[in-house]
Amino acid sequence: MKAKNRLLSKNGRLAKNTIMLFVLTFSNYLFNFITVPYQTRVLGPAVYGNLGFATSIMSYFQLLLDFGFMLSATEDISKNREDHSYVSRVLTCVTWCKAGLIALSFAVLAVLCLTVSRFQSDVPLFFLYLGAYSIYAFLPDFLYRGIEEMQVITVRSVLIKLFCTCMIFVFLRSPSQYYVVPLMTGIGNLGAVLGVSIHVHSLGYRFVRVSRKEVWETFRRSSFFFYSRIASAVYTATNTFLLGMIYGASSPLVGYYSTAEKGVAVAKQAITPVTDSLYPYMVKNRNFKLVKKLLLIGMPLLFVGCGVVMIFAEPLCAFVFGAEYYEAGTYLRLLAPVVFFSYPGMMFGFPLLTPMGLAKYANISTIIAAALQIAMLLGLFLTVGITPVNICIATCITELFTCVFRVVVVFRNRRLLKEQV
């Protein structure tokens, strides 16, 4: 009876953290939905385009600042969450690593501003944005994921985002005040970091003295996860980039494909809270039967959902994105299988392979998939040519490969699937 109660308690914590991750994920979409129309009207196309360029550049810096700590540090903390001293050392090492990555980011941005004319047009804007992103990098979300207490960081983050949203409406009144956007973002991030830091201290975690060797080992261990994320980002970004280069950025075909790809990205974002919350739970509890249950529940739902999207793709695009995006339905239909393959691919990835001691194969599968995607695009370019249709097909093949690769790894090592609850 006690064992059953412990299991129910663990599963209840998993459900709560999954809900919190859903809230955290979709709050980004909600607040963007609220503020973006206001910003576009106040700033105008030229100024808003400048902000858009700055934020697109910052996405690369954010990738660097996030590194692989969300996976490596979360795993370390989840396995040793009862040892406050150990968790404090992980927290300290990751913070030192991020401080070094922030210094590197500012150095790179300084070089870009000195050598690239596009960056010289508004140097303060880029540094304000990088400052805001750097502050946010110190938010120890890996800690809360590891101890499975996401409600704390979610509530604070959502409240801060709400504050930033309100301040943009209050202070942004003319195109000349566009600095308000990165400035309010930075102030909000600072508030979130300070609030969370106070709570971390109240939990008994402290910054402690660590050796350079410990910091380097933390960095080195996370680097493989970082390479995997880079590989994934490269092949995802390559699709739209190539279409823009071939057809021109203003081509309707590029717009249709980009719209369909964003629809798929939103659908995949709806899946990630499940796998993100499952990851630390599985590292700690190795409840492999739960993964089977989630697959048995999720796969039929995804099959029906993807089937509906494939049947009604054109009217769905017209309804969601506007009548002029009706043609995007062709590409949404072709990309719908990506979502179907993504769910088992994610479940058989880090949440399952890490507690089996096979996390490296999740990284390897992503790197090989990126190489496969680029090889297919190169082959298309040299033969029949690159079109939105064959890019969609290549992307589905890549996603299917990732899923099959991970399933095969799990099957070949199924002896490790000995449940420990």
Q: In short, what is this structure?
A:
The protein is mainly α and 421 residues long. The chain has 16 helices and no strands.
Could you describe the 3D structure shown?
- With 421 residues, the chain is an all-alpha fold.
- The chain is built from 16 helices and no strands.
- It has helices spanning 2-66, 69-79, 84-115, 117-120, 123-137, 141-146, 150-171, 180-202, 212-247, 252-285, 288-311, 313-321, 329-347, 350-353, 359-382, 388-412.
- The two termini are 13 Å apart.
| Shape descriptor | globular
- The DSSP helix count reads 16
In whole angstroms, the N-to-C terminal distance is 13 Å
The parts where pLDDT drops under 50 for at least 5 residues are: 1-5
Number of strands: 0
Name the helix and strand elements from N-terminus to C-terminus, one letter apiece. Answer: HHHHHHHHHHHHHHHH
What would you call the structural class? mainly alpha
On the 0-100 scale, what is the average pLDDT?
84
**Rg over CA atoms:** 22 Å
Name the assembly state.
Answer: single chain
Largest sheet: none
